[in-house]
Automatic annotation (TrEMBL):
InterPro entries: UCP028291
Pfam families xrefs: DUF2218
Name of the protein in question: DUF2218 domain-containing protein
Length: 107
């Protein structure tokens, strides 16, 4: 199976706060591990959906001024779906600060 990867980042203060909020929001749906400088989210495979044949994994890393995300998935559909979910959720959680848009490296 092919593994596809997409990376993104944002220059942001309190990046860990956004990661923690995202992980709390997704805690009942996905396997999540959080530490002081990031998190790991495992999106499950879907047995009956060929677009989601394997787990997808998002790795978040934070510093005082930056949030980095690396997403790996098995198909373009899976990659795009979770990329969109991560981006839109982080933006929504940062509404008070004017939003947060990740800059994604070219695919």
């Amino acid at each position: 199976m092919t593994t596809l990867t997409r990376s993104g980042w944002a220059e942001v203060q309190n990046g860990q706060r956004y990661v923690n909020t995202l992980c709390k929001h997704w805690a009942r749906k996905f396997d999540i591990q959080v530490n002081d400088h990031g998190a790991r989210v495992v999106f499950p495979k879907e047995e009956d959906d060929p677009d989601y044949p394997e787990e997808a994994i998002a790795i978040f890393h934070t510093t005082e001024s930056r949030l980095d995300v690396q997403l790996t998935a098995a198909t373009p559909t899976q990659l795009d779906a979770y990329w969109g979910a991560i981006d839109s959720h982080l933006d929504r959680f940062a509404t008070r600060e004017g939003g947060l848009r990740l800059t994604w490296a070219p695919a």
